[in-house]
């Protein structure tokens, strides 16, 4: 894992909910309620916040954050990203990794062709996708490739220490 001082965005503060400082929460964690397993939250204003209470509200979540006592207070933190320190994330097994760990890794084919560097990782609903920025002198004229992150079919291995992802992929695509 990278430096412990790195911050990770795990959600976003939504609109105020009521008049007593409650806010809607947009969670980016695997299970929406999982966002409340992390404390403290560091909001986009750089300050640390503790969660006083939270509950489901329909298909969404609402929370009462300590020292946010009114609707005006809730308005001031609306739309701020919710960060935690990277060292708050659970330790992963040998063959597991966070998307953030894949960003910046070199992507090479099983034949040794260098496709470029992972610029981003995102989910399409069907599977995760690697956005690979091609090298400036790509022989196939590619500037960027989108590769499905599907083990055994496309992704053959991920070498975390060497920062290399090996894929079975035709460089012409």
Secondary structure: elements and pairs:
Layout: E1 7-17, E2 22-27, E3 41-43, E4 48-49, E5 51-57, E6 60-65, H1 71-77, E7 81-85, H2 99-102, E8 106-109, E9 114-123, E10 128-133, E11 144-148, E12 155-159, E13 164-167
Parallel strand pairs: 8-13
Antiparallel strand pairs: 1-2, 1-7, 2-6, 3-4, 3-7, 5-6, 8-9, 9-10, 10-11, 12-13
Family: Belongs to the RimM family.
Main location: cytoplasm
InterPro entries: PRC-brl_dom, PRC_barrel-like_sf, RimM, RimM_N, RimM_N_sf, Transl_B-barrel_sf
Number of domains: 2
Summing up helix and strand content along with how strands pair, one would put the structural category as mainly beta
* Shape annotation: elongated
Q: In CATH's first tier, which class of the largest domain applies?
A: Mainly Beta
DSSP helix fraction? under 10%
CATH architecture designation of the largest domain: Beta Barrel
Number of helices: 2
SSE run: EEEEEEHEHEEEEEE
CATH-wise, what's the superfamily of the largest domain?
RimM
Annotation, overall tally of beta strands: 13
| CATH-defined fold name of the largest domain | Elongation Factor Tu (Ef-tu), domain 3
Q: What value does the Rg take, in angstroms? A: 20 Å
As laid out across the biggest beta sheet, the strand order is 4-3-7-1-2-6-5
Regarding quaternary structure, what we see is single chain
């Amino acid at each position: 894992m990278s430096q412990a001082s790195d911050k990770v965005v795990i959600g976003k503060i939504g609109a105020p909910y009521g008049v007593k400082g409650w806010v809607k929460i947009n969670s980016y964690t695997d299970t929406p309620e999982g966002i409340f397993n992390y404390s403290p939250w560091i909001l986009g204003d750089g300050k640390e916040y503790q969660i006083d209470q939270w509950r489901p509200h329909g298909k969404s979540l609402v929370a009462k954050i300590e020292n946010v006592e009114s609707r005006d207070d809730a308005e001031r933190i609306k739309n701020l990203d919710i960060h935690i320190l990277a060292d708050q994330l659970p330790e992963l097994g040998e063959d597991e990794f966070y998307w953030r760990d894949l960003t910046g890794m070199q992507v090479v084919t099983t034949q040794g062709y260098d496709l470029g560097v992972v610029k981003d990782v995102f989910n399409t609903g069907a599977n995760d996708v690697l956005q690979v920025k091609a090298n400036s002198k790509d022989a196939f004229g590619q500037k960027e490739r989108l590769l499905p992150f599907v083990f055994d079919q496309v992704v053959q291995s991920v070498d975390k220490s060497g920062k290399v992802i090996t894929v079975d992929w035709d460089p012409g695509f």
